[in-house]
Design goal:
heterodimer; A: alpha+beta; Sulfite Reductase Hemoprotein, domain 2; Sulfite Reductase Hemoprotein, domain 1; 4 domains; six-stranded mixed beta sheet; 18 helices; 38% helix; B: alpha/beta; TIM Barrel; globular; binds protoporphyrin IX containing FE; binds iron/sulfur cluster; UCP030820 (chain B); DUF934 domain-containing protein (chain B); oxidoreductase (chain A)
């Protein structure tokens, strides 16, 4: 894991002092409310429906146990005893008091954490693959790139007053788990024909009210040219991105309105004028950062663990958990383990202080003191010895963290919706809970297989519904909450936006509608196809037909009831 | 108007004039809109003048003037409109050695960024200067001692300092 040196340490401390000063200058009237707002946002402080919300950066989703223990302490001392992991691989506290925020920031700095640029019209927290450094299909670990971008984007003098927020994601793997096609910039580490490592650069993806898949603006960018090229993209966007309409201000709109070709030409023109070597990171610096992400000292182990196999044979629960939640590790004898923060009936992404402490102990003891946050609001223990799995499972179970549903229909992403969010038009969390209850039966979930459902409580799409295999969007229609259902969305290398199945439906009909969609899938499915593979093959038509039949049956029922 | 530089408030040597007639009536350095720059230069060859232009101006439109003028004032319509920062970078890149002025309702918290992007001074409306006096600007400028980005500001970036430290070790 990356560790701060004296420069990083000083930077974060000074940033805390700077923010403390900004709060004081707001209180003494030097800063107006309008001026203070972007300053507090750039430090992760939102004003929400009921209170302030503080968003803490978890750069590329990597944390250690000391950091999680500190988050537990903050949750207990300054919040209501829990925190909320988000789809940006961040952590949010929903109830801090303004006066406590500078102190919270000090405590975070003690464990090398901050809230810098977790909101506001600037380059946001960089996200990455939760299985970075673990996955077998990796060209190179994406985290050194992500850390370099974290540093480069922190208080960038030119790019802190962009037209709109700007999100960058990096992956180093063939299979895209970082959703790079729906980010403002997506970077994919790849090798060219000569075997050199570089990046494919994708610009202009995004969700929100105008969802778009990003465009490849550079097939291959040599690795050492990264920062200068990013500077060129950012400068074109900062100069030319729309500022007349906040809903058209993201770079995706600029790319769309300018045209892909012309946008690429403008970036290349700007890039040609830059003096790369004066901007790019020195090679030694890139290597210094990369060294922090070297693999931990694994034991040489056989790939098959007798201990685990025997334990699985007598403990069906452990067996199910391992089957569902483990991810193949490149090191023999190890696995990466997903911890779904999705107990049936719980709030997706919520974690109590007690769970944080228990989990910190587990990560420290069994995973080289490291864990990851995923964009599906789950956690990952990246390096668990297979021999240790029975003990890890028992410890997770004791902490209420052993849900064996990673990737299944009950592993739902949901935004805060009406429960917390000032912009919401509908509930989101209770819908997730109702669906999870409907499909609570383990055997049924297993039979359905991998099926990511994503729910947003308004068109801003924080729950990424456009890229859910099933997407649910909560709107308001005639004073009632109304839910639109899509299928076929995909955030991976097969990036696609979901298609609407038909008219919106009432909240209480959502679980049954999902059941109807699942029935269509099971009827259409060929061989071992997953839900999304079936939709990709059949297209949305059979699902539309099934959905229409469902709506008609509902209409008949409600008439019968009258 | 208050004019602030890195080391404190300074007098404005330039007089603003919006039309060519007004500009020609001024004694001493004058600050005029970009649109009348050619006309003014023709009428007053060799006179010291500056041009003002919005942050949205394409660099191609300013470039031909850069050799002739002593000052470029980039107008910020609002403190949160960052276009002026990128335009300053582009102008500085053309080798412009005159004064680069950020003009508009900027806030003290942007001072360090403005200087790092190549601005020499900030021209504030009086209402802003009353709320955020010069001392706040000078203090805000120094809240962060280091920056990560190579190519910005005067001193070396953190990345460059690390490299130098390792080479020296
Ligand atoms: C509760 C307070 C929240 C508010 C007021 C809020 C507001 C917004 C708004 C206005 C947008 C749309 C921006 C745009 O593209 O124009 C947005 C996007 C987004 N939000 Fe939130 N949000 C909140 C909470 C969350 C949470 C808890 C998450 C994570 C689960 C989240 C994740 C996202 C993401 C990932 C996007 C970007 C979608 C994209 O790529 O365009 N937000 N949010
Ligand atoms: S999608 Fe809408 S309701 Fe949900 S968190 Fe975002 S802004 Fe709020």
């Amino acid at each position: 894991m990356y560790r701060y040196d004296e420069f990083d340490e000083r930077f974060v401390r000074e940033r805390v002092a700077q923010f403390r000063g900004q709060v004081e200058r707001r209180l003494d009237g030097s800063l107006s409310e309008d001026e203070f707002k972007p300053l507090r946002l750039k430090n992760g402080l939102y004003l929400q429906l009921h209170a302030y919300m503080l968003r803490i950066a978890v750069p590329y989703g990597t944390l250690n146990s000391a950091q999680l223990r500190m988050l537990a302490h903050i949750a207990e001392t300054y919040d209501k005893g829990y925190g909320h992991f988000t789809t940006r691989q961040n952590l949010q506290f929903n109830w801090p008091k303004l006066k406590d925020v500078p102190t919270i920031l000090e405590l975070l700095a003690d464990v090398e954490m901050h809230c810098i640029q977790t909101s506001g019209n600037c380059i946001r927290n960089v996200t990455s693959d939760q299985f970075a450094g673990v996955a077998r299909d990796e060209v190179e670990d994406p985290r050194p790139t992500a850390e370099l971008i974290r540093q480069w984007s922190s208080l960038h003098p030119e790019f802190v007053w962009l037209p709109r927020k700007f999100k960058i994601a990096v992956t180093g793997a063939e299979h895209d788990r970082a959703a790079i096609m729906v980010h403002d910039i997506g970077l994919k580490l790849k090798r060219n024909d000569q075997g050199a490592v570089g990046y494919e650069v994708i610009v202009g993806g995004g969700l929100g009210r105008t969802p778009m898949i990003g465009k490849v603006v550079r097939e291959f960018l040599p690795k050492d040219e990264l920062l200068a090229y990013l500077e060129a993209v950012m400068r074109v966007y900062n100069s030319e991105g729309r500022r007349d309409n906040k809903f058209k201000a993201r770079v995706k709109i600029l790319v769309h309105e300018t045209g892909e070709e012309e946008f690429r030409a403008r970036v290349e023109e700007e890039y040609a004028k830059l003096d790369g070597p004066t901007i790019n990171a020195p090679e030694e610096e890139v290597e210094r950062i990369a060294a922090y992400f070297a693999a931990p000292t694994y034991e040489a182990l056989p790939d098959v663990s007798q201990v685990l196999d025997q334990a699985r044979a007598i403990d069906p629960e452990l067996d199910r958990f391992v089957e569902q939640n483990s991810f193949e590790h490149k090191q023999p004898g190890y696995i990466a383990l997903t911890i779904a923060l999705k107990e049936i009936g719980a709030v997706p992404g919520d974690m109590s202080a007690d769970q944080m402490r228990a989990f910190a102990d587990i990560a420290e003891k069994y995973s080289f003191d490291e864990f990851r946050v995923t964009h599906s609001q789950n956690l990952v223990l990246p390096h668990v010895k297979k021999d240790d799995l029975p003990a890890v499972h028992a410890a997770l179970k004791a902490a209420g963290l052993a849900s064996a549903n990673a990737g299944l229909i009950t592993d739902i992403i949901a935004c805060p919706g009406l429960d917390y969010c000032a912009l919401a038009t509908a509930k989101s969390i209770p819908i997730a809970q109702a669906i999870a209850k409907t499909f609570a039966d383990q055997e049924r979930q297993k039979a359905i297989g991998e099926l990511p459902i994503k729910i947003s409580g308004c068109i801003n799409a924080c729950g990424h519904h456009h890229v859910g295999a099933i997407g649910i969007l909560g709107l308001e229609k005639g004073g009632r909450e109304n839910y639109q259902i899509t299928v076929g969305g995909d955030a991976t290398e097969h990036a696609a936006l979901g298609e609407r199945l038909g008219p919106g439906i009432d909240a209480e009909d959502v679980p049954a509608a999902i059941e109807a969609i699942v029935e269509t899938y099971l009827a259409e499915k060929q061989g071992s196809e997953s839900f999304i593979e079936t939709v990709r093959r059949t297209g949305p038509e059979p699902f539309k037909t099934g959905f229409t039949a469902f709506i008609e049956s509902r209409a008949v029922e409600s008439e019968a009831a009258e | 108007m208050t004019l602030i530089r890195e080391d404190g408030a300074v007098e404005d040597r330039f007089t603003r004039a919006d039309t060519i007639d007004a500009a020609l009536a001024v004694d001493g350095p004058v600050l005029i809109p970009l649109a009348i720059a050619d006309e003014f230069a023709k009428a007053r060859p060799g006179a010291e003048f500056g041009v003002s232009l919005p942050g949205s101006t394409p660099i191609e439109d300013v470039k031909p003037q850069l050799g002739k003028i002593a000052l470029v004032a980039i107008e910020f319509p609002a403190f949160a409109d960052g276009r002026g920062f990128s335009l300053a970078k582009k102008i500085a890149r053309e080798g412009f050695s005159g004064t680069l002025r950020a003009s508009g309702p900027l806030i003290a918290d942007e001072f360090a960024d403005a200087l790092a992007c190549g601005f020499t001074e900030v021209e504030l409306p009086e209402t802003m200067a009353n709320r955020q006096p010069v001392q706040q600007w000078l203090a805000a400028k120094d809240t962060m001692t280091e920056h990560y980005q190579s190519g910005y500001g005067r001193g070396p970036s953190i990345l460059q300092k690390r490299l130098a430290a390792r080479k020296g070790a």
